[in-house]
Design a protein that fits this description.
By secondary structure, the protein is of the alpha/beta class. It has nine helices and twelve strands. A five-stranded parallel sheet has the order 10-9-11-1-12, with helices on both faces. It has a four-stranded parallel sheet with strand order 3-2-4-5, with helices on both faces. The two termini are about 30 Å apart.
């Protein structure tokens, strides 16, 4: 269950050598797929009333899940926990055909909030399996997105957790192998995994387009720029958010002297600030901006009043809501139907 944030407390304004400043990464926070999924649950509650059931966390953020629970969403692990005939929303991470079938067999009214970029990877898995390719799926075991993608072609998928897995991979036909990936991975680590796979399987094919989503890549590029100038990096995001965890790793790899992940500003420890003149701040793709603002407010109380945005890309992509939710309760086109809430 999502936990309640700790009590807000003011950080102390202790002296450091140098000018105190915050380097605020941009882009950060909500991506188009997360925005679409969260609005989908809100719209379903508006249209159908509470409760609306959601299989798994709609996105990997404890604050978002807690807020939706307060509005009447009920989160379950599997569809067999949902009462027959109820509305159920599939999370942004996607589901396997087996889950879709199980929901149908229970007479559930399903709303698919899978991120369209994840759906693209699902379609690639179906196409390559149909052509009898062996699919090397780069991703983390147990992650919902990986389970959904692998479920599209279970007899053709081999999971590759990272570069260290490569030497143990065995394939039936090295001339019919393709790689796909989880959308929220570290770009650098994924490319290293692909490089090592290609050393073993020179005829390894690439997916038609990059599987790692634009938002994941953009946030990693931004934190790389911030990290090289930062004494400390604070990443706002939940522990089960793959892309948030990766941001901490990328920050350390690219020069930050220290980097930590927090769900809430109240988790920032005073000792993290010792000797830190420049503090980088970013957030994962499932994090609402209000949580970043709370971090900035607490850092301001500690003397970090100079906030400098470090922008490396512009994002304007929007996704339409699931078709069931594109009209309001009166039957008219909903203003949020083409692009969610916006920024």
């Amino acid at each position: 269950m999502p936990r309640i944030p700790g009590a807000r407390r003011r950080l102390q304004d202790n002296p450091v050598v140098g000018h105190k400043k915050v380097l605020l990464a941009a882009p950060r926070g909500y991506c188009a797929g997360v925005d679409r999924a969260v609005v989908a649950v809100e719209k379903a509650l508006d249209l159908y009333g509470a409760p609306v059931y959601v299989r798994k966390q709609i996105v990997h953020n404890v604050h978002v899940v807690s807020e939706l629970e307060q509005q009447g969403a009920i989160f379950v692990d599997e569809v067999d926990e949902v009462p027959t005939g109820s509305h159920v929303v599939f999370s942004a991470h996607g589901v396997s055909p087996a889950v879709v079938n199980a929901a149908s067999e229970r007479g559930l009214r399903a709303i698919d909030a899978t991120c369209p970029l994840v759906t693209k990877v699902h379609r690639e898995a179906v196409r390559f399996s149909r052509d009898d390719f062996e699919i090397l799926l780069i991703g983390h075991a147990g992650h919902e997105e990986v389970e959904g993608t692998a479920g599209e072609a279970p007899d053709h998928v081999t999971l590759v957790n990272g570069p260290d897995d490569v030497d143990s991979i065995e394939v039936k036909d090295p001339d019919k192998v393709v790689w796909l990936s989880q959308t929220t991975l570290s770009v650098d680590e994924t490319m290293e995994t692909v490089r090592r796979l290609r050393e073993r399987f020179p005829n390894l094919q690439d997916p038609p387009s990059d599987d790692i989503c634009y938002a994941t890549q953009n946030r990693q590029v931004a934190i790389k720029k911030v990290a090289e100038q930062a004494d400390l990096v604070i990443v706002v995001g939940s522990a089960n958010s793959s892309n948030s965890v990766r941001l901490v790793e990328v920050a350390l790899e690219y020069g930050a002297k220290a980097a930590y992940r927090v769900d809430y500003a109240s988790e920032i420890k005073q000792e993290w600030l010792d000797g830190a003149a420049s503090i980088g701040v970013t957030s994962g793709a499932s994090v609402p901006e209000v949580l970043v603002q709370e971090v900035l407010d607490d850092l301001a109380a500690a003397g970090y009043l100079d906030v400098q945005e470090v922008k490396t890309a512009e994002e304007d992509l929007m996704f339409s809501l699931p078709k069931e939710l594109r009209k309001d309760i009166t039957g008219k086109q909903d203003a949020r139907a083409l692009g969610g809430r916006g920024r």
